[in-house]
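Data card: per-record layout.
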Amino acid sequence: MPARNFLLLMMLLTLVGCSSTTFIYNRLDFILPWYLDDYVDLNNDQDAFLDEQLAPFLAWHRMEELPRYLEILDDIDATLDREMTAADIEAIALEIERAWFRIEERGLDWLLALGGELSDEQVREFLGALWKKQEKYEKKYLKRSDAEYREDSYDSLVDNLQDYLGKLDKSQKQVLDEASAQLLRSDAIWLRERGDWLRRLEIFMQREPGWQERLREALATRSDTVSEDYVQLYEHNLQVIYTALAQVFNSRTEKQDDRLRGRLSGLRKDLETLIEQGREKGLAPAA
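The structure for this 287-residue chain is written out next.
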């Protein structure tokens, strides 16, 4: 979608949730299999296999990735102490995107291992669920008029920022309204690219010998296969959003600043708690 890096930033900040953050994180071993149930029903042996595969992944994430999130918070804090630029927002978003790609790459270990354990019927169930989601997205997004697309983009920007700054004033909302008007519509091309990828995935999931490495390579190089039109549109929309975010952050009131710093401080404490809990449990990531 047009604001992917912005959404990644929001995903990191969304971890802030007072005492609920550590509770939810400590239940990832339960939540991830539950999420997979949206795509395929696993039998008892497969559930046990998944638990075994998840353990080193979760240990790696807690002990190696969470400390890196603290470094991202340091960078965010530094930008709040001076006039923020679009380049500052982009740099932070790129750090978070790299973190996302690390999760994606490491998560492939257990996803591909699990893929080898699925029956042909389960693979069909999995692919069918993905295509059903594609159809749901098409019905939801493509029927919108251009005015509705702009309104949805504006509402999304306002809602996300108000979660961390509190109520926005008239001038801040105006900045976001003007930014929404500059966004190029991306839903159709995004869905086309997604459909193309699903068709490629169907071929990989025939699971001919060597399929796992071929799929891993395809994921690692997928940015080379998207259309130039999509790349240009995506970069344009990101720059529009980065510029608007910088303007809003620079215009924040003292009350908004206190709220934002409080949310970031809460996230920092939660991350530090999770890291310490990992040390107490003697967790160590697999080599």
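Known properties of this structure: The two ends are 35 Å apart (CA to CA). Residues 63 and 279 are 8 Å apart (CA to CA).

See the next section for split statistics.
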